[in-house]
Amino acid sequence: MKKRYKTKTLFFIVFLCLAVGVQAAEQATTDSSFFFELAKSGEVGGFVDLQLEHVLFLLIVGFVGGLVSGFIGASGAFILTPAMMSLGIPASVAVASNMCHRFPNALVSAVKRAKSGQVDVKLGLVMGLSAAVGVLGGALIQTQIREAFGNVASNLYVSVVFVVVLAIVGAYALRDAFKIDKSGSQAEKATKLASRVQSIHIPGTMMYFPSLGTKVSALFIIPIGFATGLLAATIAVGGFIGVPAMMFVLGASGLMASATQLMVAFVIGLCGTIVYALYGFVDIRLAMILLGGSLFGIQLGVIGTTYAKDYMTKIVMGVVMILVLFSLGLKVPVYLSEMGYLDRLSESTMNLLQVASYAILVLALVIGTIIIIYALISGYLKHAKRQKVALEIEAMEAPTGAVLVADDIYPTSATQLSPLGRFEKIMVVSDRSEFSTDAIREAIRLSQRTSGRLSAMSVVVTNPEHESLARQLLQKEENDALAHLETIRTSATEAGVECHIGVRHGVEIYQEIVDEAERNQIDVIVMGRRDMTGLKRLMVGSNTAKVIGRAHCSILIVPSAAQIEGNQILLAVDGSRYSDKAAIAAISIAKHLGAPVLVVSIVHSDSKERRHTEAVEQIKRVEGFMSKEGLTVEGKVLSGSPAEAIIEFAKAKRVDLIVMGSHGRSGLDRMLMGSVSDRVIGYAECAVLVVKA
After folding, report:
1. 0.70 cut: is pTM over it?
2. Pick the CATH number of 563-693 from 3.40.50.970, 2.40.100.10, 3.40.50.720, 3.40.50.620
3. pLDDT in tens, 370-387
């Protein structure tokens, strides 16, 4: 019966979308003569005659919009739409073209976040369908205003909505950046609201959502989606409503809310593009020009977040929003005068307001760009300086001599100076999910065996666009993370292990993990692995892969139910410098665990004769040094695909830890994982220690 109610609810939403869609199509057909008349009069849907200077300006605007979007981790539509309007493009065309340019990016980002398990597909589907209805309603309002009162009324409508929204969000962003208001008095109210919504049971409408961990009535979700779509159809930005509502009203975490909103944004953008195209408002030229500029800007903006401080993103967001607000606000009297609601302004006054509005918009673009570029350059220089110092220290500690001899590759315990063989500082990363449980347990046990110091961390994903509106709920999320980390510290203390805890905030999870490891000079990062199947399992997780690619220390990946008992350790070697470094770590951990080591080298079937002799020599070389260290070691040459051979042999021998380098003979750039390593990590049933060269 409950499934039937859920099905009926979804069918109702779909039917409502189709009904409104048919109505919009009928309205577009009815109004075709109106647009035909516009075409004859030279006002074809507001499609301006683009000159070279217009194209260059839009490319720059697209670049800055992408730069700001990548830097603050939010939509840059609050820059793009006003910029297009400043060229004389009607608001309806600017909004429609902006939605057309936005939805492909939203799709790519949504898929990326979904791979990490951060998207609640069911919630995104319900909100997306109801948001589609909101888009249809918003587009209908927009077209009716334009048809009844002309482009001026449409411009006024969009400008006023923009001014109100930017005033609220921009003010909150600046308040947070400068810490003017530190009151948390509303945190309880937000929690009570979400709890009350979750406690209300309306028969026939209850649906379970993984991100909420409970059932919520669809009657609460549909209005949120509708309002999100309505705002998006008005100013091309819907996240100002969607994300805070998912957090405050429904009780979703900031991470899940921001990721799920990307799925909703894709539905909104696609629906808005189709609907506005029916009305003839989508100028594909504008969309392509903006997309071309933003592709470069967004990459640079994302790089900037690596080096900039968190508060800088809020400053950029707040300053740019307030300047754009003033730019649009100066045009409101012009629109009111043209519509006859104010006394007719003189030509000079109107020109002055127009020039001032355009100048302030340009100022917003310039200031935003300068702040971001400054943060990027200064942050990079500081990072480079730290890297230089670290390399100098490493060079001082490294064994002297230009020639790498056997004792240098596999030093004895007494002469080991390389951090590759150390397990003194261990950091476990927890996302508070069940997949982190086994990683936490093994991190504590590893710290016990190596007498190492343990630190535990979690990352609270923050998006300045949404954080400004939901600061209290994000504070609650941080408190929940700290409470979870306290349970880890308690477990570690009971096991006799010293444990430090910490929560970091940022847009990219992997970057916060890497930065924390660098700051504390961690030797090993311990992470869990989600249980996945098929292609998703092969691709591991985007955050795990990026941590392995960017971290300078070793990473221990622990799948669900995996335990490191010290039965046997498998070391994969191929004669490269990466496997040599892995051997150093294997010697060290084998001693701590008192475990025998299986050394394997894989020979492809198509080059078996040529490679077999090399493989035997590689294994014997490693066996010799491990035997000198007092370890029990056995060598084996395997045949076939490297990843599959390692996984099958490890399973047959009941290996509980695989040790391997991050790249093999055909290693790629350090930003990528080796083709063998990522397959082993994705499919192995036991823990995998990836050693960085």
Report:
1. no
2. 3.40.50.620
3. 988 887 788 778 767 766
